[in-house]
Amino acid sequence: MSHALKDKAAIAGIGLTEFSKKSGVSELSLAAQATLAACEDAGLPPSEIDGFVSYTLDSTDEIELARTVGANDLKLFTKVNYGGGAAVGTILHAVMAVATGVADNVICYRAMNGRSGQRMGQGISGQIVSSDLVHWSWYMPYGMLTPGSWIAMIANKYMHRYGVTSEDLGRVAISQRNYAQSNPRSFFYGKPLTMEDYLASKMIAEPLRLYDFCQETDGGCAILVTSAERARDLKQKPAVIRGVVQASTRGQEQMTSYYREELDSLPEMELAARLVYEQSGLGPDDINAACLYDAFTSEIIMQLESFGFCGRGEGVDMVRDGALDIDGRLPNNTHGGLLSEAYIHGMNSIAEGARLVRGTSTSQPEGVEHVLVSSGVGVPTGALILGRD
Amino acid sequence: MAQSFRMKPPMGEDNGWWWQEAAAGRLAIQRCTQCQTLRHPPRPACGECHSFAWDHVTASGRGTLCSFTILHHPQFPGFDYPLIIILVDLEEGTRFTSQLINCAAEDVAFDMAVEMVMHEDPDGFRLPMFQPAKGAAA
Ligand SMILES: [Zn+2]
Questions:
Q1: Chain A partners within 8 Å of B67 (Cβ)
Q2: Does the residue A103 lie in any domain?
């Protein structure tokens, strides 16, 4: 049975701003630059854009962006919740609109002064009571104020259970840093990482060291989604959306799903995997490359299991076998990822997914037919499979 | 009164009662009065039987360490680093996120027995912390 969304839409354009630690411009300006770059990349005038989707964490309103870039009348404007968990969720919303005729050409965007402006994990307090603030208040009074502290609790349990070592996390960091050496956009371009450097890096939240953490970046990224049919008439080779899903499971919290029986797997990512494979009619064996969400190195190893590339507890064996490298079973985050390219909340990894399908990555593996991209880990999340037309 | 560094929880209908229990020196666990299921963190209804009726029990304070992280950076004012944050499997069956005190960082271990100590800040704010259980093997 063919799914209602499968193969109906495609990524026709990707647009990025420069990545820096201090952009010196507003987040609206970054969003506009990225949007115009995506339109230019696709060869579609901005006046044809009739939908915008972003993250609830994004400060740029859809209508401000529309006016700034001279978009068309809007038929879709929406924002997706849960931080980096929104990433491929934005694509899902765009695809639902395009497949149903609600909108024709939708820009998904994320633009942030993530270093010079409001940084992630700065903590919250005040007089306002909401279910979200009450959730954080079980952790923040104890000094668990940062994403690293929240994720470390799960990483430690997982590593303890399956004998994953610091060196294994280091292998993930080094693999992605190696990719960054071919990518001039990357923050760590020209700065390779050795295991010695990795192990000497500052311990932040045991078992996580500095180089287990993603970047903080100023920058923007926009993805243009349109119908597969229209995409074929545009400038770039379409990255056809074979499947795209959101997923949240029982016991889900934002970053702190600590009350499930088992803490050494990612149930929401397993659901995303099942749904995206069902929708696309594909399986792990069909996936040739991936951009797995990597706010932290430990998340990569766990996701290899969630997406069925190996069994429970075997992710570390894949990493030790070099599976993530360019000549490995599953070249992963070939742009350097959030760890080494930039942290645009996963949007830049969707752009890399499109490049891998086009064959234009700065580290392009041979014969890429299907690419898997995932959203944030430890939060309500999602998965996307892109394919060659 | 000493100035407090600690971020205070917003006190709403769903959680304020729990902090009042802590202020009285007790570690509370919410209980569905229809199906008796214990739940933490507190929520207005039971996910098992959908009842909005609840009361609470007072935990014994005994539990085992399910997971932990030792925080080194960034260092926020007022907290002592390395800061040991733990998940405790309470003997009643629910899990609780807390801080481990009276324990050196190198002595923290999975599955160690721990017991609750009610910590009080200089401004009088109280929150449950844990320490290695007395009499338990180190
Ligand atoms: Zn009940």
A1: 153-154, 156-157, 160, 258, 263
A2: yes
Q: What is the DSSP letter of A85?
A: G
Residue A201 resides in a domain = no
Q: What is the pTM (predicted TM-score) of this model?
A: 0.95
Q: Which of A134, A146, A248, A254 to mutate to test the interface with B (most CBs of B within 10 A)?
A: A134
Say which of B15, B71, B95 has its CB closest to residue A259.
B95
- Give the residue extent of every domain in chain B: 13-58, 60-138
- The chain-wide mean pLDDT, for chain A, equals 95
CB contact at 8 A, A317 and A309: no
- Domain B60-138, second-level architecture: Beta Barrel (2.40)
Encoding tokens for residue A8?
């109906």
Q: Would you say residue A244 lies in a domain?
A: yes
Residue A257 has pLDDT above 90, yes or no: yes
Residue A292 is encoded by which pair of tokens? Answer: 């797995």
The encoded tokens of residue A107 equal 């820009």
pLDDT at B1 over 70: no
Is residue A49 a part of any domain in this protein?
Answer: yes
Token pair for A14:
């990707």
Identify the domain containing residue A287 by its residue range. 2-118+213-388
The tens digit of pLDDT for each residue in A306-350 reads 999 999 999 999 999 999 999 999 999 999 999 999 999 999 999
Contact A356, A368 (CB under 8 A): yes
Q: Do B8 and A141 touch (CB under 8 A)?
A: yes
C-alpha–C-alpha distance, residues A259 and A23, integer Å: 40
- What is the total count of domains within chain A? 1
Using a CB–CB cutoff of 8 Å, tell me whether B124 touches chain A.
no
| Nearest Cα residue in chain A from B5 | A141
**Helix-helix angle A267-280:A297-306, to 10 degrees:** 50
Give A42-82 pLDDT, tens digit per residue. Answer: 999 999 999 999 999 999 999 999 999 999 999 999 999 99
Tokens of B85: 């944050």
- Partners of B127 on chain A (C-beta within 8 Å) are 141-142
